[in-house]
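User: Let's play a game. I give you a shape written as tokens, and you guess the letters that built it. Ready? Here's round one.
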């Protein structure tokens, strides 16, 4: 087992402990690795927040494990997917908490994918003005990226992640053994965040990603370990390129994810977002053709989508991009990859660059025609 730490964004508060162990399934030994559980108040009731898919496969076992640890838990189960990152889902969870007598000593334990991480983080940071948070991520996406964070967001009807809060989790347990029931689509979806890290920061990591097979468990554990340590380094350093890397391809990807109304996973949407952003960088003269090709190649290798679906109107995509947190002065502000492993940094040391409507729409069009060419060649 390896243990990493990332800093608390509030000075003087404890860092977050991240434990990585991959050799076990969900059992008492795995949970006992969460040192924080030895300190939790045995008198208070703790909230175990999860979704119905995770509950179906793990809740029985989890209840028994917490019972063995003499930790009183109250499970709250929400629907799977993005509908649980809404104010309505948050209200439902608050109502459930009101019924059970939560105290300041209660901990929120989020067990699930990135959606559960965001909902439990937002809950822990707001209920009684702040409770402790423990995260046990169960998707690749949440293990390699979403859980290693102190930002927690909910969606609004007009865009993704528009309400949020900041709270450093007390502890995070990453165990690839928890992924055994995750289907192939969600494994690949999660790898999009590892590919993001590689495209922005590490050509060697991109080579490792390009060479292997997601169904090889040993390879997957290695990819998770590298992604987690890169993210932990980025969280601790918190430099301009680190902050930019975290959201590479997301301004466009989030708009596409929002438009898809659950049809596309987060990783699938940001794969398209990164491909369009690569078109944008090439068009703006910020990168070369090889870098553009590297984007399409790596996502295609993992069976991830790269092309904006035909049914999405480009002006509609732009109107949703306008709701992005960083949109200002009629411009989308987004990072660009210069060459694989390096982000564009401007003269002021900033990585968020302004792109106007015309060039973004042109990049979206080029992306759509890239798709048509590929499809035509495939049919020939
Ligand atoms: N910094 C951050 O906070 C951050 C970073 C990246 C993504 N995110 C957010 O994460 C969300 C996406 O996360 P996700 O891709 O994990 O989606 P998700 O949480 O919806 O999980 C995907 C699917 O996998 C199922 N599932 C979860 N664990 C399982 C398991 N072990 N076995 C079988 N099925 C399982 C879920 O029920 C769901 O149907 C998005 O809302 C995104 O905005 C947040």
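Assistant: Ready! My guess for every position:
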């Amino acid at each position: 087992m390896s243990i990493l730490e990332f800093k608390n964004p509030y000075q003087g508060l404890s860092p977050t402990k991240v434990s990585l162990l991959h050799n076990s399934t969900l059992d008492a030994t795995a949970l006992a690795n969460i040192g924080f559980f030895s300190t939790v108040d045995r008198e208070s009731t703790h909230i175990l927040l999860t979704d119905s898919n995770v509950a179906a496969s793990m809740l029985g076992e989890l209840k028994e494990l917490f019972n063995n640890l003499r930790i009183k838990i109250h499970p709250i189960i929400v629907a799977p997917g993005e509908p649980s990152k809404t104010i309505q889902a948050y209200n439902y969870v608050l109502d459930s908490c009101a019924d059970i007598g939560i105290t300041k000593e209660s901990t929120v334990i989020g067990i699930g994918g990135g959606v559960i991480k965001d909902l439990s983080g937002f809950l822990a940071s707001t209920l009684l003005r702040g409770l402790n948070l423990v995260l046990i991520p169960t998707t690749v996406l949440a293990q390699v990226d979403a859980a290693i964070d102190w930002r927690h967001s909910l969606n609004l009807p007009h865009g993704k992640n528009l309400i949020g809060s900041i709270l450093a989790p007390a502890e995070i347990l990453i165990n690839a053994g928890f992924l055994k029931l995750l289907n192939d689509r969600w494994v690949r979806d999660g790898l999009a965040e590892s590919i993001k890290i590689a495209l922005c920061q590490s050509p060697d990591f991109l080579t490792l990603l390009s060479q292997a097979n997601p169904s090889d468990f040993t390879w997957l554990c290695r990819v998770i370990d590298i992604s987690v340590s890169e993210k932990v380094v980025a969280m601790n350093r918190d430099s301009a390129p680190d902050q930019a890397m975290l959201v590479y391809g997301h301004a466009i990807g989030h708009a596409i994810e929002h438009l898809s109304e659950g049809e596309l996973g987060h990783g699938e949407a940001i794969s398209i977002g990164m491909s369009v952003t690569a078109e944008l960088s090439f068009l703006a003269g910020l990168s070369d053709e090889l870098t553009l090709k590297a984007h399409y190649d790596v996502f295609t290798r993992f069976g991830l989508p790269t092309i904006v679906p035909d049914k999405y109107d480009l002006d509609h995509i732009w109107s949703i991009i306008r709701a992005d947190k960083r949109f200002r002065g009629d411009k989308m502000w987004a990072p660009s990859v210069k060459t694989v492993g390096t982000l564009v940094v401007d003269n002021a040391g900033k990585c968020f660059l302004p792109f106007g409507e015309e060039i973004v729409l042109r990049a979206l069009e080029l992306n759509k025609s890239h798709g048509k060419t590929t499809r035509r060649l495939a049919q020939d």
